[in-house]
């Protein structure tokens, strides 16, 4: 633990929570039996060509691969996308027809699209299928009763997801969701004109699977996110990279 503390200090990693897994220092360490990393995912990670994990990846990957709830804060450009997509892909492993098993929400279409692109890279040859809602009007074809079992991972802004949930009958079924990730959670939880907060509560309520794992990522630590996470998530781990600004 002395060593773990020194490692965290060296990389400016602060953690809060019980039994927080130690950070990794190389992507190779993910091949330890503890993490059961999919060989195909390992190849896809390697082919991204990153020499070593960034601090948020060092700490968030072990936490999420061990299925813990996470609130993570790390600067813009520090590789948060890979930190949540890798555990999702590893957890889902293979394509299933049971319905959506992962939901990633971001505050803008552009951000959702960037996550989608990264996800397409990391899921190469895994068989996992990812969808990005580009038009709610096309959702009837995409998710209608006959093909709602097509995708494993859904990436979207919240308003589209809520709209689809509110249709009669609902055009989206989230009861199999095992991974619920908010990217730029500080923006999603901010009170204001978008009123994402209310939409998130509705969407979260539709994720009824008790096995659902939740992770929040953002650039800054904000009180609304911490409050929501502490209220809803058991056994939460909080990670901050760099200066603490709460
Ligand atoms: P954030 O969401 O924290 O703002 P991104 O996930 O968008 O950051 O990543 C920023 C850039 O860093 C992307 O171009 C991404 O491909 C790259 N990147 C991700 N992980 C690493 C890494 N371990 N080493 C170097 N670059 C990385
Ligand atoms: P976004 O605003 O995320 O870019 P869209 O433009 O596809 O997504 O849809 C935005 C919102 O417009 C939806 O969340 C929904 O509330 C509303 N909307 C879209 N299509 C319809 C429709 N056919 N009937 C009523 N409302 C709609
Ligand atoms: Mg990001």
UniProtKB/TrEMBL annotation:
It comes from the Eukaryota. Residues 61-239 form the Helicase ATP-binding domain. It is found in: Nucleus, Nucleolus. Belongs to the DEAD box helicase family. DDX52/ROK1 subfamily. This is Probable ATP-dependent RNA helicase DDX52. It comes from Drosophila busckii (Fruit fly).
